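Can you please make up a protein's amino acid sequence together with its fold in token form to help me picture the idea?
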Amino acid sequence: MEFRFEVIPYDKTLPSLPKHSAVYKIFDIHDKLIVLDKTSNLSQRLERYYGPRSEMVRDLDLRDITGRIEYIRTDSTFETLYLLYQQRKQYFPKTYRKMRTFRLFNLMKINRKQRFPRLYTSRQIKSGVDYFGPFVSRGQFARLKTTLERTFKLRPCLYNIRGNDPHPDCLYFQMHTCSRPCNNDIDRLRYLNDVEQAMAFIQGRDLELEESLIRKMNHLSADTKFEEAQIIRQRLEKIRHAREEFKDKFFSISDFNFLVLVQSDSVTRWKIAFIRQGRIVGFEEYELDGLIESLAADLHRFFDAPMERDSSNSRYDEFCLVANFILDPLQSVDVLRVEEIENLPAKVVQRIQQRKRKRRNELSTPLL
């Protein structure tokens, strides 16, 4: 979908404009951008810049310096924020992140390329590293970090651990609160297995985690390795206790695949944003008639193609933009998880029909 701005040459008189949400740009007589912003009522906003002046009005007076005005109508808060973000990134590549109009979140970073990984907080996304979120506060991140370190005995120390380099002066070493990889108490393979279990816990894959541990415990018991089986049982009990204390679950960025459904300016058309691994990789508009066929082709186009490596901040920013609408859902935006692509177009149509029925019921309900 191509976003096209309407261009209005300014000649001291402002033409009639829609009373609609929009993203707009104002250029001066030297073709320099002087205003880039969003509004819920375009006509009212520009009236403040170009309408009659009075001593009571303190808004900008742009009548004598404007060369042209460009705007594009938007049909949802999601579309407005996305368009404004894209335009600011284009015109202000060095400072656009300071102009954001949506909330940013903390992420939990686990770099399995390290010999003995630990947990970090991060506000950027790099290729080849595992990230989980969104965390709404540092306190929420700290509570989960402590839970993971105690439950799976991941190391919280800041040392560059390679193995066979004990740190007896370390408090965690003395208290045995970590698995002490520095002392070779655990090898890298078993430590990475603990990291994998911690990642499953973060995402709320408790059933998968429990089934794996129970199978391992039963196998050890069948081989009369009862002491090792007891250790697995204790790990399982600790995980269950940890879940009782910490119930929040988080997304893995590598699996952060969604469709964002937005109604267009007509009830017969819908706009759909495609989110793959945190990136907004596409934004298309569809007629309801024939949506299943068109959407099926685009799903394969956006989700089957190789993912390009991206070292910029765009992936993190766009992940946060979408996460805002997952944490605080709006009626104008519907977010649908991408799992089985083959069945997804039918689910999208079903969700749209549900929203249309709900809307009709709301309109038909008499006000008391």
